[in-house]
Design goal:
With about 375 residues, the protein is an alpha/beta fold. It folds into 2 domains: about 180 residues, Rossmann fold; about 180 residues, Rossmann fold. The strands form 2 sheets. A 7-stranded parallel β-sheet has the order 3-2-1-4-5-6-7, sandwiched between helices. It has a 6-stranded parallel β-sheet with strand order 10-9-8-11-12-13, with helices on both faces. The chain is globular and about 70 Å long. The two termini are about 20 Å apart. This is DUF2827 domain-containing protein.
Length: about 375
C-alpha cells in the first residue's frame, strides 16, 4: 500500500512520558508501544514507525530504549508526517485530532488496559481517575484491542467511542528483558538448585484482575502438603497491605506459612532481578487478565510459572480458573520434576512464545490486513 507521497505508510504510536529517564518496568504501556512498533515494521505496507510523545516531557538520550531503532518524537514533529496515528500510551486532544483529520490521516485507538475495571473501581472506591477532565474521542477510524481485554471491556470501548472494536495480535519481545538480565548471573535464566524451594508471588495488587490472595492460598496448600519442600513464600507489591490493611493482616495470620515465619511481604521489585536473585517457582492468578508480559518474561527465562491464564494455557504449569488445589498440585509437580527438564522446558517455552514475537508471520499478516482495510475505508 502506498500513500499520496508514493511511499508506504508512515505510522506513529503514542506514548505519554512523565520523566526523561522513565523506567520500563513500572508498567507495560511503554514496552507495549515499542513492541507494537517493532511488529508493524515487518508489515509490507509500512514504510516507517515512530513513537510520538504527547506530554511536555523532553525527549532526551536518557530514554530507556535505542532511539535509532525506535525513533521518538513530539506530536508537533509528527503531526504533518504520519499517515496513521495509533493512540496507545498518550491521548491527543480534539484540536490535534482535527489537524490529523484535515490531512486525511487515520486515528486508531489501541486498547491494552482494563478500562472498564479501572472505571468501575474508581467510581466504587473513590479512586480519582479523570475527574472533570474526561475526553473520549469520537473520531477514531478503528479500535484495536489486545485479546485479553476483549471479554470485559469491549462493550465499554464500543459504546463510549462509538465505533466497532476488534481484537488484534498480542505482541511481545524479550529485547528489554534480556538487556536488563545481561549483567545478572547466568543472564537471569533459571538454574536448578537443591533443597527447599523459594516461591514468589508478584501480582501488582493495584486492582482486582491481578491480586495475590489466591496464589498465596496455592502456596499455603503446597506447604501444608510438603512443609519440608518449601523454604519461603515471598509476596511482592504487598508491603503496604501487610502494614496498613487489618483485613489482610488478619487473613494472613490464619495461614501456616505466616504462623511459622515462612512468608515475607515485600515492596516493588523489577521482575528480571527478583527472578534471578530470589525465585525458584512463580505462583500467579488472574481474573479477566489471561495474557500479560509477566507470564512471558517468566517463562522465557525458564522459571516454572504456575498460573491460570487460559489464553496461554500451554505455557508453564497451568491450572484452571480458581482451582487452588490444582494449582498446589502443579507447584508440587514443579518442585519434584522441573530441574530434571529445565533446559527442555525453557526451549519449549521460547518456541511457544514465538507466536507473540515481532515478525511472526500470522501476526504480521493480520496487522498488514488491518492497516490496508483502515486506509480503504473513508476517514471518520
Amino acid at each position: 500500500m502506498t500513500t499520496a507521497s508514493g511511499a508506504g505508510l508512515r505510522i506513529g504510536i503514542t506514548i505519554g512520558l512523565h520523566h526523561e529517564a522513565e523506567t520500563l518496568w513500572n508498567n507495560g504501556i511503554k514496552q507495549n508501544a515499542v513492541f507494537l512498533a517493532e511488529a508493524l515494521k515487518h508489515c509490507p505496507s509500512v514504510a516507517s514507525v515512530v513513537l510520538v510523545n504527547t506530554t511536555a516531557t523532553a525527549i532526551t538520550p536518557a530514554l530507556p530504549w535505542d532511539q535509532a531503532r525506535w525513533p521518538t518524537v513530539t506530536f508537533e514533529a509528527a503531526k504533518d508526517s504520519v499517515d496513521v496515528l495509533i493512540e496507545l500510551g498518550g491521548q491527543i486532544d480534539a484540536d490535534q485530532t482535527e489537524h490529523l483529520k484535515r490531512r486525511g490521516a487515520r486515528l486508531v485507538s489501541y486498547c491494552c488496559g482494563f478500562e472498564y475495571v479501572h472505571a468501575m473501581e474508581s467510581m466504587l472506591f473513590g479512586k480519582p481517575l479523570w475527574g472533570r477532565n474526561l475526553f473520549i474521542n469520537q473520531r477514531y477510524d478503528d479500535i484495536w484491542m489486545v485479546p485479553q481485554v476483549a471479554h470485559i471491556s469491549q462493550p465499554y470501548f464500543e459504546v463510549l467511542r462509538r465505533a466497532e472494536a476488534r481484537a488484534v495480535p498480542f505482541v511481545w519481545s524479550p529485547v528489554f528483558l534480556e538487556e536488563r538480565s545481561r549483567a545478572l548471573p547466568d543472564g537471569g535464566v533459571y538454574q536448578p538448585r537443591s533443597g527447599p524451594r523459594r516461591l514468589s508471588v508478584m501480582e501488582p495488587n493495584i486492582n482486582v484482575v491481578k491480586f495475590c490472595v489466591y496464589p498465596i492460598l496455592i502456596a499455603e496448600l503446597a506447604y501444608r502438603a510438603r512443609p519440608d519442600a518449601v523454604a519461603l513464600l515471598q509476596v511482592t507489591n504487598a508491603e503496604r497491605m501487610a502494614k496498613d490493611s487489618m483485613e489482610f493482616i488478619t487473613l494472613m495470620n490464619q495461614l501456616d506459612l505466616v504462623r511459622q515465619h515462612k512468608a515475607v511481604f515485600l515492596g516493588r521489585h523489577e521482575t528480571p532481578v527478583f527472578l534471578a536473585q530470589n525465585t525458584d517457582i512463580v505462583v500467579s492468578h488472574q481474573w479477566e487478565n489471561p495474557l500479560n508480559y509477566f507470564y512471558l518474561e517468566t517463562c522465557w527465562q525458564g522459571y516454572p510459572l504456575v498460573h491460570n491464564a487460559h489464553l496461554c494455557a500451554d505455557l508453564g504449569y497451568y491450572y484452571a480458573e480458581n482451582d487452588v488445589a490444582a494449582g498446589s498440585a502443579r507447584v508440587l509437580e514443579a518442585i519434584d520434576g522441573h530441574d530434571a527438564q529445565a533446559q527442555t522446558y525453557r526451549d519449549r517455552q521460547r518456541a511457544l512464545i514465538g507466536r507473540y514475537l515481532p515478525g511472526d508471520a500470522a501476526a504480521t499478516q493480520t496487522y498488514d490486513t488491518l492497516l490496508q482495510g483502515l486506509m480503504r475505508r473513508p476517514a471518520r
